[in-house]
Write a structure and sequence with these properties.
Two copies of one chain form a homodimer. Chain A is mainly α and 237 residues long. Chain A folds into two domains: 10-75, Arc Repressor Mutant, subunit A; 81-236, GntR ligand-binding domain-like (Four Helix Bundle (Hemerythrin (Met), subunit A)), CATH 1.20.120. The first copy, chain A, is 70% helix and 3% strand. Chain A contains eleven helices and two strands, in the order αααββαααααααα. Chain A has helices at 10-23, 36-43, 47-59, 78-82, 93-117, 120-139, 143-160, 164-174, 178-184, 190-206, 210-236; strands at residues 63-66, 70-73. Chain A has a two-stranded antiparallel sheet with strand order 1-2. In chain A, a hairpin with a 3-residue loop joins strand 1 and strand 2. The first copy, chain A, binds a DNA duplex (30 and 30 nucleotides) through residues 7, 9-11, 35-37, 45-49, 51, 54, 65-71.
Chain lengths: 237, 237
Amino acid sequence: MFELVTPITLGDRVLSQFVELINNGTFKLGEKLPGERDLYAQLGVSRPVLREVLSALRYMGYIESVQGDGTYICKRPLGPAMTQLSLQAMIEETQLFEIWEIRYLIEPEVVGLAAQRATDEDISLIREKFHLFEKNVQENIDHQAIIESTKAFHNAVAMAAHNEALAFLLESITNMMPETRERTIQVQGSSERAVAYHRSIMEEIAARNPEAAKKNMQKHLVDVKSDLEAYMASKKR
Amino acid sequence: MFELVTPITLGDRVLSQFVELINNGTFKLGEKLPGERDLYAQLGVSRPVLREVLSALRYMGYIESVQGDGTYICKRPLGPAMTQLSLQAMIEETQLFEIWEIRYLIEPEVVGLAAQRATDEDISLIREKFHLFEKNVQENIDHQAIIESTKAFHNAVAMAAHNEALAFLLESITNMMPETRERTIQVQGSSERAVAYHRSIMEEIAARNPEAAKKNMQKHLVDVKSDLEAYMASKKR
DNA sequence: ACCGGTAAAGTGGTATGACCAATTTTAAGG
DNA sequence: CCTTAAAATTGGTCATACCACTTTACCGGT
């Protein structure tokens, strides 16, 4: 007869109370929380329930706990709010392309911002990461190292845009296709092309040329997409 | 002497194992998990630890539990992976502008896609949401209704872009500035201007004119930004 | 009075066992 | 065979105890 909305659990209630306590300023950022024993008494639940809630908040990155010390409220929870463990297996094929498209929308804009806002330090960091990447590709080290260095490069670029939330977001998104990255890297010549594009992007950021940088990032991502398609096709077999 | 990297907790280990079990296909999407009693034995931990991990996964939206029935793995965990409870109080002023900038990067692109991909159904839905919004503003109903209807409009547009992940992402982002929305809506004339922009955007999507739609969305967001600034200034006092 | 080391107190982490509430399954009864 | 009620199963909650680590505070030596 009645619609089953959502069986509200005790933890849900506690979670709400907790959010409220933070939003109304009872608990301030960076502050230490009361001990679990005080807290669960204060909230009127048992310790396990409290801990389940805290556990969730912890894995989401809102709080941090130190054994023997206490639990602290994180100051910059932005990343956690967007990212989180990406269970790659949970991402289906269509979603992979959707995620690619999001990259295609965002990353060019990011390099555009980077080209406008990068400081000299930013640029030298980008240079450094690029040369590391180039070196790894040339020497054909293990794939993991190459992946790490390309991520480092993209990350350095994102930092140069001077929008921390954006950098977080981008990292989360790219992390959603990790397996993919490992496979597409094996496609013939893909890494070499990537090096070329990275170089162009780097140089155009250094030259403060947003539009050109954006264009090259777009081309690079189109490349990534075709690698992705090749990978998907091979997976079908 | 030694650097404290991260005190790995039992739950962390279980979480990893769990992720691995999903990624290697032992647990498939939509499937029912073993009972907690089996599971915690199988993973070699106690029930509280297991439950803390499951709790986190649950609040992140990866799994769902039904008392008396079992725990299921969600099929489309994309939203949860990005969004989650946004503790508005945890977002600082600078971050608000960073988030605005993200909107400024993404939303115009989204309406651009929408103008290319919208079906007739999409367009009529957008029209519907727009008229609701317009009506709410004219009749000056309670603010909550206005906020809801503008969100509904933006959401309808996002759906028209036919990229579910993107729609999720955008919703998460806009949800990060909820309080803001409630305040800026009180700024004189802001709602009326918003109606005008929404109308233009709607019409240009219907006319399949991506560039014009993008331009208007950008203007609208610039408007939102100045409201934001006004809000922040008033908050300072 | 100062310093250093050690014990105590406090904190988060883990484990056990029990019971409650909802659902599903099973089996008994019509 | 269908209905129905009991039993088994499952997630939800609680109490308690103990472990590991940190911080604090006390106390003795200098």
